[in-house]
Design brief:
With about 240 residues, this protein is mostly helical. It contains 9 helices and no strands. The longest helix is centred in the C-terminal third of the chain and has 71 residues, at about 135-205. Residues about 1-5 have low confidence and may be disordered.
Length: about 240
Amino acid sequence: MNYNMRLPDAIKTVLLVLAVFFPFYWYNQSYLSKFSLQLVALLILVFIFHNWLARKKQNSDPISQYQTITIIIIITIITVILVLSTGGAGSILFWLLNFLLFFVAIFSRPRAGLVIALAIDAAFLLNEPQLTTNELINLISLLLMAPLAAIFSTQFLRLITAQKEIKILSNQAKEEETATLIWLALDFRNQMVKAIDLVSQIKSNLSLIPYHQRETLDRLYQDLKALFKSGQELKKKIDETTE
C-alpha cells in the first residue's frame, strides 16, 4: 500500500476548524468540562507517544506522513481548552492563541493562521454572545495578528529554503573541490612530470635539433615547469582554504 501522499488543503482546513470547535463543545458539556485537565493530560501523552512512534517508523508510514497535522490538532485543542478553562475570551492566557497562529502558519501553511483566527473568533462569538469590550479587543487583535503570522511564516519558509539551497551548493562545491584536488594531485602532476621528462630527454640531444627549434623547445620546457609550479601552488592554496 502506498502511503506517500499528502492531505489536501481542504481537508486540513476542515480538521483545523474541528480542532477549534471541539474544545468549545467539550467545555459546554457539564459532564465533560470537569474532565478538561484530564483531557489535556491525555492529549499530552498522545503527543509524546505519537512523536516517539513517528521516529520509530519510516517516512513512508502514514504515522510519519501525517505527523505535522496531528501535532497541530493536538496543540490547538490543548491551547483552546486552557484558554476556555481560565476565562474564555478574557482569559489571562489568551495570548497563547497568538503563538498558536504563528505555530500553525509555520508548520502547516501561511494561510492556516487566518483560518485558525477566524474559527476561534467565530467560536467565541457563538459561545459568548455578550462579550465585554476587553474580550472584543482580544478577538480583534487575534484577527489582526493572522496577517503578521502569514508574513512571518512566508519569510521563515524562504529562509529555510535558502539554507537548504546553500547546503546543496556547499556540498556540490566540496565535491568539485575534491575532484580538483584529485586531478591536481594525480592526473595533472603525473602528466606534467612525464611531459617535463620527455622535453628534458629531447634537450639532451640538442646536437640533433636545428638551432631555431632549440629555442622553441627551451621555451616549452620553461613553460611546462612554470605550469607545473603553478599547479602545485594552486593545490596548496585549496588545501589551506579548506583546513
